[in-house]
Design brief:
- This protein is α+β, with helices and mostly antiparallel strands.
- Helix content is 37%, strand content 12%.
- A hairpin with a 2-residue loop joins strand 1 and strand 2.
- Helix 2 packs parallel to helix 4, helix 2 packs antiparallel against helix 10 and helix 5 packs antiparallel against helix 6.
- The radius of gyration is 27 Å and the shape is elongated.
- The structure holds glutathione (GSH).
- Glutathione binds next to helix 2 and helix 4.
- This is HIT domain-containing protein.
- InterPro entries: Glutathione-S-Trfase_C-like, Glutathione-S-Trfase_C_sf, Glutathione_S-Trfase, Glutathione_S-Trfase_N, Histidine_triad_CS, Histidine_triad_HIT, HIT-like, HIT-like_sf.
Length: 405
């Protein structure tokens, strides 16, 4: 790559930092602005990152453990390049994500926190703890935790705080390969059990007596889990088993680097809270404040119903005032704000799709119907009487058209 690194002064939220501002393919306008600043450059590179970023904090922990000063690696906000999705940033990291390390001199961009962390370990090998153990088994134990994080935990991490339908141009939707937030969060908690089994029994670090890349990788995300999972009803004490609980106490109370990164991340999460980040996110706290309906009594078993179908998401039972030989009401078990169809958001896509593509076919098959009508009365004027979304499945006789208008 052509040696085209640019030099600039940057002020990050971590304090004043002098940094080369990316350099590589920055647009000319940014380039001339940066060159005018004429400030000394960090000798190794600039880490584009913000304090709340857990992936970035992995790299910052390496820098902190190794005591790398800001005049060697500066920490710079991506805003200096116009933001993550600005052409100058995308030119260096086409994924539009932080962290990104741009190397001084060559301007070579290194994206991906695991790659950056390993580069920094190698580049500053003689300083601080190795973080990559020389013992092959210890190294493998650290690596398997990093892999667990990046492949299984990180895939569903955005379910903690990203609204559905917000994926945009991102490579992964917030629920990862899962259909719903609930399923993604269930996966996250089951992967935390795997992490618990990988954590060293005695510690105090995840792989024994010394910190490794495993701690740098997991600790920033652990701060997210501890802060956010309780919003989805998971008790704080149930998030980590005994090994991870002991480790988290050590990282927070006895490890300066752990405490420092926590102090960087937590205010960012608090700011998200203050900006109502979780308000539109289904299941984070109580969003559905409408009163209980007769369907809640049926779901609770307090009122008997002639149930024809049930699975983990929905319940179907025969209408007590049938208008045709088959007249079944199909409801989501968790109302989750779906008092009526017009309240549906992208968060409800999974349950709505499940009703149409899984539950309805099963129900009509049971009654041997090859013709039927699905009706959703959406609102009082459309004759909705119970405000808990429901579908009427009507059939078993010749129906007329138009339907009751
Ligand atoms: N696999 C990447 C993931 C990077 C990532 O997801 N970064 C987040 C911040 S922690 C980000 O840039 N999010 C903003 C976005 O995706 O627009 C890594 O480990 O570096």
């Amino acid at each position: 790559m052509a040696a085209s690194a640019l030099i600039a002064l940057a002020v990050s939220r971590f304090g004043v930092a002098r940094a080369p501002l990316a350099a590589v393919r920055a647009p000319l306008v940014a380039r001339s602005r940066l060159l005018r600043m004429n400030a000394p450059s960090p000798s190794v590179g600039a880490l584009y990152d913000v304090p709340v970023s857990n992936n970035g904090a992995r790299c910052r922990m390496v820098l902190y453990y190794k005591g790398v000063p800001r005049d060697e690696v500066a920490v710079v906000s991506p805003a200096e390049l116009g933001g993550l999705k600005a052409p100058a940033f995308l030119a260096a990291n086409p994924q539009g994500k932080m962290p990104l390390l741009t190397l001084a001199g060559s301007g070579e961009p290194l994206p991906e926190s695991d790659t950056i962390a390993r580069y920094l370990c190698a580049r500053f090998a003689g300083r601080g703890p190795a973080l990559q153990p020389s013992d092959p088994l210890a190294a493998a134990r650290s690596d398997r935790i990093c892999r667990l994080h990046d492949i299984y935990l990180a895939a569903v991490q955005p379910a903690l705080y990203k609204v559905a339908g917000s994926a945009g141009a991102q490579a992964f939707p917030p629920f990862g390969p899962f259909g719903s937030r609930q399923a993604a969060l269930a996966e996250l908690t089951s992967q935390l059990a795997v992490l618990e089994s990988y954590a060293d029994e005695r510690g105090p670090y995840l792989v024994g007596a010394e910190p490794t890349l495993a701690d740098c990788t997991i600790w920033p995300s652990a701060i997210f889990w501890q802060t956010i999972l309780p919003k989805f009803g998971m008790p704080a004490e149930a998030i980590f088993g005994p090994r991870l609980s002991r480790w988290a106490t050590h990282m927070m109370g006895a490890d300066d680097v752990g405490a420092r990164v926590s102090a960087e991340i937590r205010p960012g999460l608090l700011e998200w809270e203050e900006k109502q980040r979780w308000a539109p996110i289904l299941g984070a706290g109580t969003r559905d404040t409408a009163g209980a309906t007769i369907f809640d009594s049926i779901l609770d078993g307090k009122i008997p119903a002639d149930v024809v179908y049930e699975d983990e998401l929905v319940l179907a039972f025969r209408d007590i005032a049938p208008v045709a030989p088959t007249h079944v009401l199909l409801i989501p078990k968790r109302r989750d704000g779906l008092t009526q169809l017009q309240r549906a958001t992208a968060e409800h896509k999974h349950v709505l799709g499940h009703m149409l593509a899984v539950a309805v076919p099963a129900i009509v098959a049971k009654d041997g119907l090859d013709s039927y009508r699905l009706v959703v009365n959406d609102g009082a004027q459309a004759c909705q009487s119970v405000f808990h979304l429901h579908m009427h499945i009507i059939g078993g006789k010749a129906l007329t058209w138009p339907p009751g208008v």
